[in-house]
Sequence to fold (122 residues):
Amino acid sequence: MPVKHSDLLLVFGLKNCDNCATAQAWLKEHAVGYEFRDIGAEGVDKERLQCWLDSSHAHLLINRRSTTWRTLTPEEKELSESNPLKILGKHSTLIKRPVLERHGHVLLLGFSADEYRKHLLS
Fold:
């Protein structure tokens, strides 16, 4: 199934992620409309993951400071270099969160008030 590209800002994250909660609070405070997608409950389809991996943000997509990363085997960590689509499809919690997407393009990864202000309010 092709990825549907929305005009609405999509926020991909985990419902219990502190960064995701902070980002959503910032978006609400600044009246930026968005739709939250819980990647823990819904997952991320391979087409969308591939779009993210084809973006200029791809090098930041795998969160190598996460708890999930620390539990991976050396073989799985190597897979993150050779086949990131496979490892991210298997472990969605490795995705740096939140991922902000609009029109099928990654705008931002993680949360930074300065970056959000620069890209979303200007």
